[in-house]
Amino acid sequence: MTNISKHKILDQAKESFSQEDYKRALEKFAEVLQNFPNSKEAYNGVILSEMALSGETGAEALFDYYEILKEEDTEEADAIMSEILKNMDGTLEELGKAFTQPLRERLEFEDGILYSDFQKLLENGGDFKEIFENIMFSTRVIISERDDFIDFLEKLIENDFAEMALNYLESALSVYPSDELLQKLLKKLAKAKGKKA
User: Fold this and answer.
1) Is the pTM for the entire model greater than 0.70?
2) What are the angstrom distances between the C-alpha of 122 and each of 8, 50, 109, 117, 131?
3) Using 50, 70 and 90 to split pLDDT, how confident is the model at 55?
4) What is the enclosing helix (H) or strand (E) of 142?
């Protein structure tokens, strides 16, 4: 397989994925991977296609994010996506526990500040970045409500904590793959990273 046909088949694979023909996308990414075993793009494409085929709707958001990252730096995009996909294993169960466990139980074994108390500090004229950095080193923010979690992610993105926001978002999307707000935040984060680059 020549380099020209490699790119042509990758384009066909991405086009199929965009048209929600995940089976064909998987076949095309696998074809490239068979001939170019070191192609990170083909490898990531195979995993994303398999995720989409198994009904994980977060795969589309991750695919879009990957495409945006590639516009900036293909090599870095491949590395970031490989890391995301690798870290997604096992996060589902842990995050599921964190969101379903009663707040009192969590407070019994977690040292932390409730998000509502954290918001009060901000309302009293505090700077998010400064307050959050102080809290990060001494305790943790405990979030029990979905809306608070979304608000927290937006504040992280707005205050240049993009990597941290991405980590939270990846975990959340693995538990709630079809959550539209989380997918919008993923796109917002990708744009924020794009502007910074």
Assistant:
1) no
2) 51, 43, 26, 9, 8
3) confident
4) strand 141-142
